[in-house]
Amino acid sequence: MQDFTNQALTSLSTQFSTQLGKRLLLPQVATATLELIINKALALNNNKSVSFAAVAQKTLTLELAELPFTLCFTVNTSASKTLVIVRSRTEFSDCTINTSFNTLNKLKAKKSLTQLIKQDELDVTGDIKIAQQFANIAQSLEIDWQTELAKHLGDVPTHKLLQFGNNITKSLIGKGKQLEADIGEYLVHEKRLVVTNSQINAFNQKTKAVASKVDSLSARIDKLVANIANK
Amino acid sequence: MSSTDKNSPATDLSTTPNTATDADSSANAPVDNNSTTHFGYKTIEKDDKISMVAGVFHSVAKQYDVMNDLMSFGIHRLWKRFTIDASGVRPGNKVLDLAGGTGDLTAKFSQLVGREGKVVLADINSSMLNVGRDKLRDKGLVQNIEYVQANAEYLPFEENTFDIVTIAFGLRNVTDKDKALRSIYSVLKPGGRLLVLEFSKPENELLNKAYDFYSFNILPKMGELVAKDGESYQYLAESIRMHPDQETLKGMMENAGFEQTSYKNLTGGVVALHKGYKF
Question: Which of B82, B141, B267 has its CB closest to that of A79?
Answer without folding.
Answer: B141
